[in-house]
Amino acid sequence: METTEINDGPVANIRKTRSSDFDMTIAFVGNPSVGKSAFFSRLTGVGVVVANYPGTTVELTHGSVNVGSKKLDVVDLPGIYSLGASTEDEKVAKRYFLREYPDVIINVVDATRLERNLFLTLQLLEFNIPMVVALNQMDAAMEMGIEIDIEKLSETLGVPVVPTIATKGVGLEETVLAAIDEKLSIKDRRRVHYDNHILRAIKTLDENFPEIGYGIKVRALERDEEFVKLSCRPHDADLLLITSESITDDIEKAHGMSISDTIVRDLYGEAGYIVDRVTTQVEHKVTFKERIDSVLTSEYVGITGLVAALLLTFFVVFTVGGFLEEGIVSLFEIFLISPAENLLAGSHPVLSNVIIYSLLGVEAGFAIAIPYIAVFYVILSLFEDSGYLTRASFLLDNWTHKVGLHGRAIIPLVLGMGCNVPAIMSTRTLNTVREKRIASVLIALTPCSARTVIIIGLVGTFVGYWAAISIYVLELVIIFATGWVLGKGLSGERTGLIMEMAPLRKPDPRATFQKTWLRVREFMYIAFPLLVAGSALLGLIDSLGVLDVFQNAVEPISVGIFGLPAFAATALIFGILRKEMALQILAVLAGTANFALVLTPLQMYSYAVITTIYIPCIATIAILKHELGWKDTTLISLFTITLALVIGALINMIGMNF
To answer: What is the pTM of this model?
Structure first.
């Protein structure tokens, strides 16, 4: 490790540690949906590392790139609107800047929403960290008739500004070269023209604390204790906070509002002034993209299109995933399972069982999970990167209000169709604890990609497409009914929807591939060891006769109440580890992935419904505990188990009468 002294940063005499493997650290920061991730993926490719920031569940993505003789550590921070502390993402971004102190910031800015984005830019300029502005989505700005004077904007801000189109890689090289330019400095940067009362307060603090940076004093006036304490020595931080507290009381009395509101007002005023100086709005013809956008957001056509998009998603996952599954199963059976069985014939039964079961686990992972998960994540990435998810939020705002939420909550719910864990983490963007609780319960009931594997891989493949769709309809009814009851019953503050509508854009194939690979890779790293170990354990306990004892014990309940064979109960227990394991272990126990040979259509349907409703997986339980605490997590788990058992029994009862 290499340690260097910070002389020009906001933190006096705080030492910064950087891995000796890198010559420079660059941090990408910007608002959500500005194309930052596309920019990052273009630069770093797929060789990146995703890890939680220490002490949090917020993910940071690290990548490395060589530029000339320099090796760069590139960090993609979560999308944020400000350096406040209203969301966990904003807290993590702020802590990263103050603790890790990157060498350069690349601030990715949406040219179509310059004023909103400059709010964050002006805050970043108060850090004493060299910075480059990547003015992204220039093609979209031109289509909207927005002309921006790049040189004037650069001169006004006092930092290099590079026009970019991240999805096409335009301006990427110029931005990075500007960031590593040795002449890049922190001098002559723009400072916000704050209210005279605030400027006088800063001047007073200057006289008492001449060694502390300008930006720290602004944050001290805002009473941002964490920022100040991370930026200064403990003694200086306490003195600064005490001094600023006495000053801010007088300012708030004079303005009749909190000093934070005054500073926010001045930041937006400064951003608006800059935009007026550097932009020109010219007349332009309504583009085809704008016409499409108006259709997608219309009340009736938009909703119809959303339903069609979801049905098409399931059809593509069903068709492509089923085709891949059939081919992979055939290859495994011919070239791995059958040869292994012949080779192990006559060997010790325990060893033979453990090996064969382990190989069946590998087959189940590759043949059942990956085809469906990978295809689904490709489609989800396309929805995210195209800007369609924000339009879905807008369209469904009225519906989500009926369950005590607003349209923004649809994004966590849709993300929940991929994985419940990041979906529950994303509920931090919701404004109240009440909304987080309702959204978390509904996400726990939302069929994730692992449960989609079960629905489509079992029911869709062996019962029928519309039978699989009916499970989603049933889930939708359950989710809406649960949300309606919670919306009426839970007390707390209700909020409206205020959200930016990201422009429609063509998804970047590289970004789509990277997102899909990272998500599938996570499954392979986490689920595969569990799957193989679980399969090997099954083989061991099967050869010792323990499995028969357990299945004989649960058979009266499994068969009598739910109409399922006893080995299905064993598979359900493994599904608590990872949901897709409920199907993979079922295949291992059945001895075949052709479930039509061992289960009736009613049994497959009932098993899929129970699996998609009952207790979330271990990872989801862990994140629920982190976000809501043990009490709410226990209640959610007990509710889903009870609901799954009741509905499973009803399906068996109704099915037996037909």
So the answer is: 0.66
